[in-house]
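Q:
Just now I want nothing more than another pair of eyes on a protein record. Here is the record:
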Amino acid sequence: MKHHATDAHTLAAPYALGALDPGERAAFEDHLRTCEACRQEAAEFEATAARLAAAVSQVPPAAAKAQVMAAIDGVRQLPPRVPTPVAPPALREVLRRRALPLALAAVVAAAVLGGVAVWQTQNVQELEQQARQAQQELDAVGSVLAAPDAQTVHGKAANGALTTVVSSEQQNKAVFTAANLPAPGTGKTYQLWLDHDGTMSPAGLIDHDGTVVLTGNPADAGAVGLTLEPTGGSPQPTTTPLMLMALPT
């Protein structure tokens, strides 16, 4: 991707995502040495990308350890590796045939220990679906962060959460990031809103630190709001906004 030198302050997101060519990356790293704002912004984007990547990780099933230990008991171990004289061709062939099943058993054990639970087809399919959804969300967030016209604003909610909104007019999308967001409590969730001249339209839910793409149309919205709502969200805000942050223009 190509940028003019005067656009250095807009390169924090593509830098964090590895979207700059070597020359641009070197130039931006020179810029970072003298720009505290860009250093902080790049660090925040890198932290967000790391959290999104972690979203595809999965906790092993509770029964996995017992199944692994049971499988190990049934796997024949390879003999110790000791120097042996060169065997005649016929004997080498016999040893090769005997070593093959042992090697296969070792591969099976490694697969089990690696968490490849092929016997749990349904769980695997569910995990794959979750991974696909996480990848789609990551792609959507990345496209906004790397947009050449991406603009960023930072804020702080009344409950102490640090917030960031990155918007792209070309893509007509905006991304919201929260850090230090307190747990919403039982039966509650945080809801995002787009403020259209005083009319609040739902823009998505978030219940912990992370990043989401705002739903709705941010094109003519003046601000992004955050409220605490019942689980599942509300058609209109039911509590005083914890934050109302103006979108960049």
Q: What stands out?
A: Strands lie at 151-156, 162-168, 173-179, 188-196, 199-206, 210-213, 223-230, 243-246.
